[in-house]
Design a protein that fits this description.
The protein is built from 13 helices and 13 strands. By secondary structure, the protein is an alpha+beta fold. Strands 3, 4, 5, 6, 7, 8, 9, 10, 11, 12 and 13 form an eleven-stranded mixed sheet that branches. The protein has a two-stranded antiparallel sheet with strand order 1-2. 34% of the residues are buried.
Length: 521
């Protein structure tokens, strides 16, 4: 046998053969759009300011601590924030959450501000002013699974009143909130007076606009400016129109048109005209919508305004996509556009689509079907393995008396137990932890290294968490939207914008013209 046989051969690029697997290969990949910082994230709170919080107790990092990965379910009102994701010079929901987790003892100081160290991922990025009922972020925390309820209460005492931590699920070390979320459901609370015929609303707003007269230096503060006359509807005149329009009640015929239009979003389509910075040729401009429905209208007693709840479910969404989808559906229902115009918007031609206000939009539910299925399958495998081990141990115990007697009669005393070293043994838990220390020296526990039951992410199936989520929706979020709709007049400003800048919803460059020019060339 040649001495070269069985050895790896070296090439110009190094050793050939199966590459050595490192521990980093098993770690979840960070989002591509997550910036890498050598210093603390500039969007995090300054560490010295956070540590000055009354009652702050530093964690002794010289003592080993166990980090476990959790998926956090939390709710928030987005009106006061510039979005969910932590960003420099922005007030974000994640910055508030990170600060509270640190003060509660879930994050050590050397990890604060370093999102990659604790493998922070998010399931869905909400934009400025968008809310959430059950948002999910996952990260490694110093939290005992048996004390997570106490930890939740402590974190909530440190969070602003418009952000609530609702639950924690212990997940696998490789869990990634974004990649493992199979579908997302958003709701949109739409005042039905926005669906009134465009001729009626435009005439009312134009008449008020004419009677008001010039408004010098109004800018965008008092509404959307008309560049031709430098006049705008101010708050008092806009409120007069609101008092008239809010008494509108949608007819079954208009509601039917809205529902038929929403059905046109089903399936896989190109949404390059429903976001910014996307071209029709880009594959990631295509998105798959599972459903888009409109519920039955209802009247809010406190304001007298009628609403209809829109619910859209899809695999993923682009920036501002849902707000533009709602705006186009509203345009068809009120007569500004046709269903043919909507079909054209899915084609390569460029079509301008305005955005509906962010006030009524909120993330309702997240689904992790593939992850949960794997947890159930692996749980069954674990149970069968435990059963086989128990049966094997019972059979061995039953045969032990006969085997021991035979071995005692035939064995010859050759050495004492002290003469020969016992073979090294490693328990299953020790093997799982071997070489699994985190980048900061803290020990990382795997998802099932302590024999705990595999947990699935089904927050709406948990009675306690479901009660918290419904309470936040019914007692906090919906009343907030109803009150803000009346106080901010967001939808009236939106209608005034459509009056001042009427949208044709037609291609900027007709497809026929593009085809003719291409054929002629």
């Amino acid at each position: 046998m040649s001495g070269e046989q069985g050895k790896r051969k070296r090439s110009d690029n190094g050793w050939k053969g199966k590459p050595k697997r490192s521990r980093k290969d098993d770690l979840p990949q960070q989002d591509d759009d997550e910036p890498q910082y050598t210093n603390r994230h500039p969007g995090s709170f300054p560490i010295d300011d956070v540590k000055s919080y009354p009652g702050y107790q530093p964690i002794d990092e010289s003592v080993p601590h166990i980090k476990r990965k959790y998926a956090l379910c939390f709710s928030y009102l987005g009106s006061a924030y510039q979005g969910l994701q932590i960003n420099p010079d922005c007030k974000s929901v994640e910055a508030e959450l990170e600060r509270a987790l640190f003060l509660a003892g879930g994050i050590i100081e050397s990890n604060f501000g370093f999102m990659t160290k604790i493998q922070w991922t998010r399931a869905a990025r909400t934009d400025r002013g968008v809310h959430a009922i059950s948002q999910c972020c996952a990260m490694k925390l110093l939290v005992d699974p048996d004390k997570r309820h106490e930890f939740i209460d402590k974190v909530n005492s440190l969070l602003p009143s418009d952000i609530r931590l609702q639950g924690m699920t212990k997940v696998a070390k490789s869990f990634n909130s974004k990649n493992l979320c199979s579908k997302r459901t958003y709701h949109y609370l739409l005042p039905t007076y926005v669906l009134q015929d465009t001729a009626i609303t435009t005439a009312l707003l134009q008449d008020t606009y004419t009677r008001q007269g010039p408004v010098v230096g109004a800018g965008y503060e008092g509404g959307y400016i008309d560049p031709a006359t430098s006049r705008s509807l101010n708050r008092s005149h806009l409120d007069e129109c609101y008092q008239t329009l809010k008494n509108y009640r949608v007819s079954p015929e208009v509601l039917a048109v809205l529902r038929e239009t929403l059905q046109m979003y089903h399936g896989t389509r190109g949404y390059h005209n429903f976001t910014s910075g996307k071209d029709a040729s880009e594959m990631n401009a295509k998105r798959y919508m599972i459903s888009f429905t409109a519920g039955e209208p209802f009247v809010v007693e406190s304001t007298g305004v009628e609403y209809v709840l829109l619910a859209v479910q899809g695999q993923s969404f682009l920036l501002n996509q849902i707000r533009k989808m709602v705006a186009f559906a509203v345009a068809v229902a009120r007569g500004d556009a046709t269903s043919a115009d909507l079909s054209t918007a899915f084609e390569p031609a460029q079509v301008f689509v305005p955005m509906a206000p962010s006030l009524g939009l909120y993330l309702f539910e997240l689904f992790f079907d593939g992850y949960n299925m794997k947890q159930r399958r692996d749980g069954e495998r674990d149970r069968h393995a435990q059963l086989r081990a128990a049966q094997k141990a019972a059979a061995k115990a039953a045969a032990a008396p006969t085997t021991t007697a035979t071995a005692t009669a035939t064995a010859a005393p050759t050495s004492t137990s002290a003469d020969v070293a016992a073979p090294a043994t490693t328990t299953e838990g020790e093997a799982a932890n071997d070489g699994n220390d985190g980048p900061d020296g803290q020990e990382d526990k795997d998802d099932n290294d302590e024999g705990q039951t595999r947990e699935e992410i089904e927050w709406y199936e948990d009675a306690q968490i479901r009660s918290r989520l419904h309470a936040f929706k019914d007692e906090v979020l919906h009343p907030h939207i109803f009150q803000e709709e009346q106080s901010s007049l967001s939808y009236m400003y939106y209608l005034d914008y459509l009056r001042a800048f009427p949208q044709t919803y037609k291609p900027r460059r007709p497809i026929e013209a593009k085809e003719e020019s291409s054929s002629s060339s």
